[in-house]
Design brief:
Layout lengths: L17 H29 L10 H30 L7 H34 L2 H21 L4 H11 L5
Length: 170
């Protein structure tokens, strides 16, 4: 039987000091940001690809919207560092951790939308079927949101995995 916070009995848990929580958060941002930057770089060079001209004007606007969404995502993931610098980099508060966590999580939504929009355009070029391309893009968007937003909150599955694969201690 799980404890109220979703942990299994006997499962280890450690509270982090604010400074350690801030370090962990910065590391998470540093892991996400290079992927966002690489995606944005590929989006920038896509306009120089010969097939980009095969897209109609509305589809090129979709690519521009996808680029804006990915840039927004990068800005949101980078904002915690700007907030920390603004306050001199010598102070960490619960509010900073909470706000920065929200920015990191919220930044994944425009990233998912931008990826899905560009995936729609790539699928459209590949299969030349607008409805199928839209279905594939919507499925990708839903999967990204599931893995990035829903799955991390799915405590019962986490507890099951913990029970099944936990290393037994002597």
């Amino acid at each position: 039987m799980a404890i109220a916070d979703g942990r299994e009995p006997g499962e280890e848990r450690e509270e982090l000091e604010l400074s350690d929580a801030a370090k962990t958060l910065v590391e998470e941002c540093r892991m996400v940001l290079p992927g966002i930057q690489a995606t944005f770089g590929f989006q920038l060079i896509a306009v120089f690809n010969q097939r980009f001209g095969d897209l109609d004007l509305a589809e090129r606007y979709l690519h521009l919207a996808a680029m804006c969404l990915v840039a927004l995502s990068a800005a949101m993931v980078m904002t915690p560092a700007a907030i920390h610098r603004h306050y001199g980099g010598r102070e960490v508060t619960d509010t900073f951790i909470y706000l920065s966590t929200l920015l990191l999580l919220a930044g994944m939504v425009p990233l998912a939308a931008g990826l899905a929009l560009d995936f729609f355009l790539i699928a459209l070029l590949a299969i030349d079927a607008r409805a199928a391309a839209a279905l594939f893009a919507a499925a990708l968007f839903a999967m990204l949101l599931f893995w990035w937003m829903a799955f991390p909150r799915w405590r019962s599955l986490h507890a099951w995995v913990g029970r099944k694969y936990r290393v037994r201690r002597a």
